[in-house]
Amino acid sequence: GAVVSQHPSRVICKSGTSVKIECRSLDFQATTMFWYRQFPKQSLMLMATSNEGSKATYEQGVEKDKFLINHASLTLSTLTVTSAHPEDSSFYICSARGQRGADTQYFGPGTRLTVL
Amino acid sequence: DAKTTQPTSMDCAEGRAANLPCNHSTISGNEYVYWYRQIHSQGPQYIIHGLKNNETNEMASLIITEDRKSSTLILPHATLRDTAVYYCIVRVWNTGNQFYFGTGTSLTVIP
Predict the structure, then answer these.
(1) How many CA atoms lie within 13 A of A11 on its CB side?
(2) Of the four listed, A44, A52, A64, B93, which is most buried by Cβ atoms within 10 Å?
């Protein structure tokens, strides 16, 4: 199957700093990427949908100015958590969808963010 | 997208078949059934999907009832590495839309 990577896999930062998480599709071009957040013992919650070259669409309740998403190429999307606070500590997962006709989404391994 | 209902947890003996049910009674004609699983602290992994015919791949089999209101994911010979949360998702094919995850079934394979 297709491979999606995330970097970093784990990050610890101080409150008030910004953290950037990268999501890459390694062997296919991803027209659409999705960002999810998962708190302990809970299911994945979709944060936003990102299409290459256009602005991301955020789910209700997700602050677009706090979670900046950039999808500048067909293989890379970034999520920046700005002015992170302890309540932003979570497991962030991206997924990528291929071009037309390839509807299955492939997920990255996730990034564990801990804000002190 | 239609809502799905799954049991919260299940156990299965190692080497036996694991049968994971999913109810999707409000599924519409153009919605597919997808199965993903998530091993602890990893991203979800695609398993299989189908519309109305039974499907099989190297990982699992998917049995969809004739009325399409429910389905069963079958892991033919469960191993300890199959311990994970299994998600059943119903969604229209190729809309480019996101997957909405429910709470899934936590499968524990017992030695």
Answers:
(1) 26
(2) A44
**A46-75 pLDDT tens trace:** 999 988 888 899 999 999 999 999 988 889
Q: Which residue of B has its CA nearest to A108?
A: B43
Considering only CB atoms, which residues of chain A are within 8 Å of chain B? 1, 4, 6, 31-32, 34, 36, 43-46, 49, 91, 93, 95, 97, 100-101, 103-110, 112
Task: Classify residue A15 by its DSSP letter.
Answer: T
- Confidence check: pLDDT of B78 > 60: yes
B87 to A49: CB separation less than 8 angstroms, yes or no: no
Question: Residue B104 and residue B8: Cα distance in Å, rounded?
Answer: 7
Cβ of B46 and A106 within 8 Å? yes
The residues pairing with A107 across neighbouring beta strands, listed in sequence order, are A95
Best B1, B33, B42, B98 residue to mutate vs chain A (most A CBs within 10 Å)? B98
B101–A34 C-beta distance less than 8 A? no
Nearest Cβ partner of A43 from B34, B45, B101? B101
Amino acid at position B82, single letter: D
pLDDT in tens, A6-58: 999 999 999 999 999 999 999 888 888 999 999 998 999 999 998 888 889 99
Alpha-carbon separation of residue A76 from A24, A28, A47, A59, A69 (angstroms): 5, 11, 17, 21, 11
